[in-house]
Automatic annotation (TrEMBL), chain A:
GO terms for cellular component: cytoplasm. It is found in: Cytoplasm. Homodimer. The active site is at residues 172, 342, 375. GO terms for molecular function: homoserine O-acetyltransferase activity. PANTHER family: HOMOSERINE O-ACETYLTRANSFERASE. Belongs to the AB hydrolase superfamily. MetX family. This is Homoserine O-acetyltransferase. The gene is metX_2. Residues 67-380 form the AB hydrolase-1 domain. It catalyses: L-homoserine + acetyl-CoA = O-acetyl-L-homoserine + CoA. Its EC number is 2.3.1.31.
From TrEMBL, chain B:
NCBIfam families: metW. It holds the Pfam family MetW. This is Methionine biosynthesis MetW. InterPro entries: Methionine_synth_MetW (IPR010743), SAM-dependent_MTases_sf (IPR029063). Coiled coil: none annotated. The lineage of its organism: Bacteria, Pseudomonadati, Pseudomonadota, Alphaproteobacteria, Rhodospirillales.
């Protein structure tokens, strides 16, 4: 497998300044201040005003602004979808899928991805400065939800002058945001592609998240969330959280195929607690590298947002009701995708959403992709999955009246 | 696996317009342009593709095989991976103008239940199935003493997905019992050629290789 060439070559030209009013900024790692005219009310009741959102765009917005795709990132993702990542230097997390001629075609669509609120790659979050104190928010940052993330994205879309997104797409927590978009703003979304996700976080998944949070909070360097002010970082706790979570992203078969019981640079076990096994070494590496690019408090906030996600809860615990709109079925065209070996967001979770959409006779496609790569499959080389994405996008583009070739701006 | 071994239905934008199997074309001709259609057991999506792109219907499909679903969705059709035996109950009544079950009834675990669901979900149901009363099939059993393996039903008994065969007579009598009205019927002879035979005719049950029926639930049963 050759590494995909990201959309932009390094160094990617970012702009720290907000875009000029009335123009659509295009490029990597942009910033915009939202909630300037009126604060954004969060589910917890707190109001956020003048908050920053970091985002990237790819491709060109057409004249009638009908070719915009919003990509929603997962728990530890960010808006560097198809750029080299500024911290790791690695290609963007969806370079495989996003680019010229790729399933999410930058020659054809205008693609937007923003760092979620609560994140740590430029959008407002616990590591950012609290304007009230001049210090990092830490645990003073309000608890956010998936719906709050989507509210902020809607403000960004409004800011860009886009009324109706052609498509909202994302995997895992990104898929939760996609589902939330279709429920919160059904008139502003033409098509939705939730991947490897669920309409609510399962007890098992909440349990795994709690393990991660406890690992962070058990690290003395966490300092009750105040580590940034005390010049410390709970690296050990965050690394353990990442290690535990990483296991859930893979399947047993994938772990076995990759590592088996192979030993790490040694011929026999050492009768100690070194990383004797390759799988241990791999997990330690995953943990150690993760702490360089992620904030521990962000991890607490974002995992919490996923735990709180339950789309049916506000609709009498009947998921189908979430997809009713003005007495009819949701007008959004859906395509759900799951992966056969994903035990974090297993196929029945997607199927439950499909059944709810069927119950209102909504327009829905559903594909379970056969793979042994587990939950992470949505980030990996999966030709069948990529064909499904491309086919769904093409079909929707035809119904949306988007021409095959990019419409050049007037 | 398709219930029929004849899967050369020619899906995709590459096919010539109107280039679908004759029996599928017959079904398509029964459907009003722009209507809402659910195609159950849509296979590789040949009929659905034709309906969506030639007749501008709001078309959806259900297909059991992953290969079929993958092919459909990759072609931009709205198809879910699902099982007609279990997944029809989710749909609201009258959600579609037409529900199509083409060459699939005989592969259902509970054909009677499925039939009831079809006329519940759709204002009309269009069903086609191979007639087990076709003379060649009768002859195979009568003269050879073997389970028939014909050109259209190319599976040996031990590996066939077709578990509930019926004759045209069996089918019309079940419709009677379920108070389902047969609004139209077309009996196809060899090579999918439509005949002028009426479904109630005993000759149809002998010379018809397959039947296509348009059904609706009797209003009095609402």
């Amino acid at each position: 497998m050759t590494a995909p060439i990201p959309f932009r070559q390094p160094p990617s030209g970012g702009s720290a300044a907000g875009p000029l009013k009335g123009t659509v900024s295009e490029g990597a790692n942009l910033r915009v201040v939202l909630g300037t005219e009126r604060p954004m009310r969060l589910d917890c009741g707190v109001e956020l005003e003048n908050f920053t959102i970091a985002y990237s765009t790819y491709g060109t917005l057409n004249t009638d602004k009908s070719n915009a795709i919003l990509i929603c990132h997962a728990l530890t993702g960010d808006h560097f979808v198809a750029d080299y990542h500024p911290v790791t230097g690695k290609p963007g997390w969806w370079s495989m899928l996003v680019g010229p001629g790729r399933p999410i075609d930058t020659d054809r669509y205008f693609i937007i991805c923003s760092n979620v609120i609560g994140g740590c790659m430029g959008s407002v979050g616990p590591a950012e400065t609290n304007p009230a104190t001049g210090k990092p928010y830490g645990l003073d940052f309000p608890v956010i939800t998936i719906a709050d993330m989507v509210r902020a994205q809607k403000l960004l879309i409004d800011h860009l002058g886009i009324d109706k997104l052609f498509c909202v797409v994302g995997g895992s927590m990104g898929g939760m945001q996609v589902l939330q978009w279709t429920v919160s703003y059904p008139d502003n979304v033409f098509a939705a592609l939730p991947i490897a996700t669920a309409a609510r976080h399962s007890a098992q998944n909440i349990a795994f998240h709690e393990v991660g949070r406890q690992a962070i909070m058990a690290d003395p360097d966490w300092c009750a969330g105040d580590y940034l002010n005390q010049g410390k970082r709970p690296h050990r706790g965050l690394a353990v959280a990442r290690m535990a979570a990483h296991i859930t992203y893979l399947s047993e078969a994938a772990l076995h195929r990759k590592f088996g019981r192979n030993l790490q640079n040694r011929t026999t076990v050492t009768y100690g607690f070194d990383a004797d096994f390759q799988v241990e070494s791999y997990l330690r590496h995953q943990g150690i590298t993760f702490v360089d690019r992620f904030d521990a408090n962000s991890y607490l906030y974002i995992t919490r947002a996923m735990d709180y996600f339950d789309l049916a809860a506000e609709h009498g615990d009947v998921l189908a009701n979430a997809f009713r709109h003005k007495g009819n079925a949701t007008p959004v065209r859906f395509c759900l995708t799951s992966f056969s070996s994903d035990w974090l967001f297993p196929t029945p979770e997607s199927r439950a959403v499909v059944h709810a959409l069927n119950a209102v006779a909504a327009n829905v496609s559903f594909v379970e992709v056969k793979t042994d790569k587990g939950h992470d499959a949505f980030l990996l080389e999966e030709p069948e999955f990529h064909q499904v994405v491309r086919g769904f996008m093409d079909g929707c583009a035809e119904h949306r009246g988007l021409t095959r070739k990019r419409t050049e701006p007037a | 696996m398709s219930p029929l071994d004849d899967t050369s239905t020619g899906i995709g934008r590459n096919r010539r317009p109107g280039d679908i199997r004759l029996d599928l074309r017959l079904i398509a001709d029964m459907i009003d342009p722009g209507s809402r259609v659910l195609d159950i057991g849509c296979g590789d999506g040949a009929l659905l593709d034709y309906l969506v792109y030639e007749k501008q219907v709001d078309g959806r499909g259900i297909e059991l095989s992953m290969d079929g679903v993958h092919s459909c969705v990759s072609h931009g059709l709205s198809v879910i991976q699902g099982d007609a035996d279990t997944d029809l109950k989710d749909y609201p009544s009258g959600a579609f103008d037409y529900v199509v079950l083409s060459q699939t009834l005989q592969a259902m675990r509970a054909p009677r239940k499925v039939l009831e669901e079809l006329v519940r979900i759709g204002r009309r149901a269009i069903i086609s199935f191979p007639n087990f009363g076709y003379w060649r099939i009768r002859a195979s059993l009568l003269l050879m003493g073997r389970m028939p393996v014909t050109e259209r039903l190319g599976y040996e008994w031990y590996e066939t997905p077709n578990i509930h065969f019926c004759t045209i007579k069996d089918f019309t009598s079940l419709c009677d019992r379920l108070d389902i009205t047969i609004e139209r019927s077309v009996i196809l002879g060899r090579d999918n050629r439509p005949t002028r035979l009426a479904s109630a005719d005993g000759i149809a049950n002998f010379f018809g290789e397959q039947g296509v029926f348009m059904l609706r639930r009797n209003g009095t049963q609402e």
